[in-house]
Amino acid sequence: MKYIEQKAYNITIEKLIDHCDDLVKSISKNKELLKQWQEEQRFDVRILMSLKKRLMLDQLEFPLQYNHCYFCNLRSLINVYKPFNHDNCSGCEYGLKHGVCSDSDSQYAKLMQALMDVRWEILDYYEG
Questions:
Q1: pLDDT digits (tens, 9 = 90+) for 39-85
Q2: Cα(9)–Cα(26) distance, integer angstroms
Q3: Which residue, 49, 53, 73, 107, shows the most beta carbons closer than 10 Å to its own?
């Protein structure tokens, strides 16, 4: 089993590196837009606040998809002939300790709900 565990570990690291690359690209793009607005000396508070909201929302893109999870990657490798779904989570080490992610009272579900709540608050943050 050690080989499969190492493979799941490496897959997860690669997916997290990809996530970091995507995040850096997104932040860089937003930074360039802000610099462009600064150079053009535009004064439009509504658009500025819209860009700020976009920047905040982009920073909430956490690596929480199943392919960012060591335990999900491990289960997928163990159940190689089954497509990933939450039915494959029985015996998941994370799920045993924190609740299976698809359960509404799991730590994952609570985190996802908190992120959704923050997203809604950001969307309501400023209306010009």
A1: 887 788 888 888 899 899 998 999 999 899 999 999 888 877 666 66
A2: 26
A3: 73
* pTM (predicted TM-score): 0.82
**What does the pLDDT look like over 58-68, one tens digit per residue?**
989 999 998 99
Side chain identity at 103, as an amino acid letter?
D
In angstroms, the CA 46 to CA 64 distance is 31
Q: Per the structure block, which two tokens stand in for 9?
A: 């570990």
Q: CA angle, 22 as apex, 99 and 84 as ends, to 5°?
A: 35
Per domain, the residue ranges of the chain are 2-123
Judging by beta carbons within 10 Å of its beta carbon (0-12, 13-18, 19+), is residue 95 exposed, middle or buried? buried
Q: Which amino acid is at 54?
A: R
